[in-house]
Amino acid sequence: MEILRKPEEMTAWSKRAAREGKTIGFVPTMGALHEGHMSLIRRARKENDVVVVSIFVNPTQFGPGEDYDRYPRCFEKDAKMCEAERVDAVFHPAAEDMYPEDHRTFVEVCELSNRLCGISRPGHFRGVTTVVAKLFGIVRPDRAYFGMKDAQQLVIIERMNRDLCMGVQIVRCETVREPDGLAMSSRNTYLSAAERKQALAISRALKECEARFDAGERKTMPLLKVMGDILAREPDIEVDYIAVADPITLDDISTIENEALAAIAVYIGKTRLIDNVTLRPKKG
Ligand code: PAF
């Protein structure tokens, strides 16, 4: 497995692979890899000739007062995990090489970036789309793999990829959960045992929402209420938002015609956690 730190080295590596007729599967990450990332890597491994993983804690997607400084960084461990999954190259750039002094270009997907998480994290998705656009330019993948836990991020990246004709196949991958239901996230490591227990209310609320939807509920008010009631029982949970939204526009909806995205963001102590489920009528 190669570890490449300079963007131009990464691009040269990818060009060589493309010249040899190899397809490139790409998994962009900020490191602190867990089973969720591993499932993306395994899928990329199955569907491509070579696999590239980027490990870069992207400063432009963190707002003032957010956890950029304390975000877990454990490159040696991450690299070993990549090697065990037969990753071909890890791209691990320095912030100065991604954002030199005279960097002036940002990519923003309008409207979608200001909904849901974008309300309490202004500028966050602009940072995400900027770095993903740069990573796509550097790595030049055929396919890129993203987890559904970050559903809004995925919708926004799909739109950027389409609007800017980037030509990458974006592959949606299911959220990976701990056996007790907690969605895997690098930020789970911040939680104390007591906080982690309370965090289970998030997946419980989404599950209950899904059960009511499956039982025929199509009005979003009762779905929002049931999720709110479950979260309200936990003393240390502060709700950022609970939403049932159109899965393409991310606008709140009052009646579900077909599919919808039920999404939750909460603070538990200083930790912000998100999760979601897609509400989709069962076939047959
Ligand atoms: O989902 C993440 O880990 C990050 O937002 C991403 C896509 C790697 C961009 O920094």
Explain the overall architecture.
- The structure is a single chain.
- By secondary structure, the protein is an alpha/beta fold.
- The protein has two domains: 2-173, 3-Layer(aba) Sandwich (Rossmann fold); 186-276, 2-Layer Sandwich (Pantoate--beta-alanine Ligase, Chain: A,domain 2), CATH 3.30.1300.10.
- Helices cover 38% and strands 19% of the residues.
- It has nine helices and nine strands.
- The chain has helices at 7-19, 35-47, 75-84, 95-98, 117-120, 124-139, 151-163, 193-214, 220-232, and strands at residues 2-4, 24-29, 50-55, 89-91, 143-147, 169-173, 237-245, 260-268, 271-279.
- A six-stranded parallel β-sheet has the order 1-4-3-2-5-6, sandwiched between helices. A three-stranded antiparallel β-sheet has the order 7-8-9, with helices on one face.
- The longest helix is centred in the C-terminal third of the chain and has 22 residues, at 193-214.
- 37% of the residues are buried.
- The mean pLDDT is 98.
- It binds pantoate.
- Pantoate binds at residues 28-30, 58, 61, 128, 131-132, 150, 153.
